[in-house]
Structures are given as C-alpha cells and as structure tokens.
Amino acid sequence: MSTRHEEPSPGAAPLISARGLTKSYGRAEALRGASLDLRAGEVLAVTGASGSGKSTLLHCLSGIVRPDAGTVMYDGEELGGLSEDRLSALRRDDFGVVFQFGHLIPELTALDNVALPLLLAGTRRDQANERAGEWLERFGVRGQAALRPGGMSGGQSQRVALARALVTGPRAVFADEPTGALDALAGEQVMTALVHTARESGTAVLLITHDAQVAAYADREVGIRDGVVHSGPAEALAQEAARHEG
Ligand code: ADP
Ligand code: MG
Predict the structure, then answer these.
(1) Is the pLDDT of residue 196 over 60?
(2) Which protein residue's CA is at the shortest distance from atom 5 of ligand 1?
(3) What's the maximum distance between 2 C-alpha atoms anywhere in the chain?
(4) Does ligand 1 have an atom closer than 6 angstroms to the CB of 27?
(5) Could you tell me whether strands 43-47 and 95-98 are parallel, antiparallel, or unpaired per DSSP bridges?
(6) Share of the chain above pLDDT 90, in %
(7) Which ligand ends up closest to the CA of 51?
(8) Does residue 131 contact residue 209 with C-beta atoms inside 8 Å?
(9) What is the rounded average pLDDT of the residues 205-231?
(10) pLDDT at 73
(11) Residue 54 Cβ contacting ligand 1 at under 6 Å
(12) Alpha-carbon span 151 to 149, nearest angstrom
C-alpha cells in the first residue's frame, strides 16, 4: 500500500488524490512533484501565476494527460493503471472538463454542443435536447442555443462550455479559468451558478483561476508555483518568496 496521510475516517477519503506528479514538455518542467486532494463535493480553487503548471495539473487529474511520474487515485482506482477504454468511460461518465480555451465543436450549435455528452452516454435525442436547454438556461445563454461558437462572444462560449461539462451530472468538474473571458458581473453569475450546482448535486469542483474574487467562492484554496502545489493561496506564496529573496 502507498503511504498516504489522509484523515483516518473513511468518510473523509478524498475523491481524487494526486501524489508526486511530474510532467515535462521538452525542457519545460510543467509539474515537479505536485500533490493534491480533491474531496467529494468540495469546491477547491487552484491559483498561480501563468506558466506555473495549473493547466497541466488539471489535465493530469482529469486523465487527459498521463504524468511522467506520480499517481492519480480516483475513487480507489489509479488512473495510470486503467486501459484507454476504461479511462475514456470514466472521463465520459464521471468527469466534466471546461478547457481554458473552450474547445466547443465549431460545427455544432450551442444546444448540440451541450447535448453531445448525453448522446454519447446513450440518452435519447429529445431528452438530451431538453436537458441541454435547461443547462443553457442556468448559465444565462439559452438565447444563444441555435448559434455556433463562431457566432458567440468569448463569455457566451465559456458559459456553454460550463453547461456541457455539467450536463451529465459528473462527480467531479475541472474548470480551467472559466471566468477568464467574462466581465465582473458575468463572472459572478457564472460562479454563483457553478457553486450552486456543486452544492446541490454534491459535485466536486477543481477551479483554476487568476482572480482572487473568483477563488473566494471556493471552500478551500491552494497555490501552485513552479509545478509544486502549496497549501494556501498563491498570493501568500509570492509574498513569502519575495521575503526570502529580499
Ligand atoms: P499554466 O496553466 O499555469 O499557465 P501550464 O500548465 O499551461 O501552466 O504550463 C506550464 C509549463 O509547461 C509552461 O512552461 C508551458 O510553456 C509548458 N507547457 C504546457 N503545456 C505544454 C505543451 N503542450 N507543450 C509544450 N510546453 C507546454
Ligand atoms: Mg493554463
């Protein structure tokens, strides 16, 4: 067995537990021993400077990228030990991902983009469309249902991407700067909808953000610096580093 240090109560076991993740792209060491726990139903903010490894961490935790070393445990299974088929099924059924740069399908309307994960999971077309419409409504973009991504603003696309990530009722949602293209008011609306959904359905949310006001919606915040996760906000880390250097 691995040497884990969680609370002894089984109820407190994290949904996702990453230990010692490393990942390099050529000479760039995106992760250098990152460890993190995401508990069931919690909203966890990850903050850090540009290039600190936030997106890479999200990709490793959600099974999109395999780390060079380290482990990601999800509900008792190690992602690295799963077959591609099992991993795909898990990503489809249990995880929702909002990518930093949207990644909506350009040929599909907003409604069809949101309905797609349901169709892939075997939901009937009419039911999928109805649920997709409800989720667009929740994020304030029902009026854009018939538009393709090219015809929407960045903020509207981000809301559609959030609806798509949540429509299947995942156990964990990974959101990479979901309010990055939104003004303050729209950001508040999106965060309120996201946190409300998480609370209501017990969905765990890993929220990557630059914005302290957005991080304030989370139950807990950790910082990442040079590919290593530290407890507490990134702001505190930067101040501490400045003290050591100064
Ligand atoms: P963040 O999301 O915090 O801005 P990233 O995880 O995107 O950070 O990147 C961390 C480091 O890894 C950066 O130096 C970045 O240039 C590098 N990196 C990330 N993804 C790739 C990639 N696909 N190819 C090459 N370098 C990458
Ligand atoms: Mg990023």
Answers:
(1) yes
(2) 53
(3) 62
(4) no
(5) unpaired
(6) 72
(7) 1
(8) no
(9) 93
(10) 97
(11) yes
(12) 5
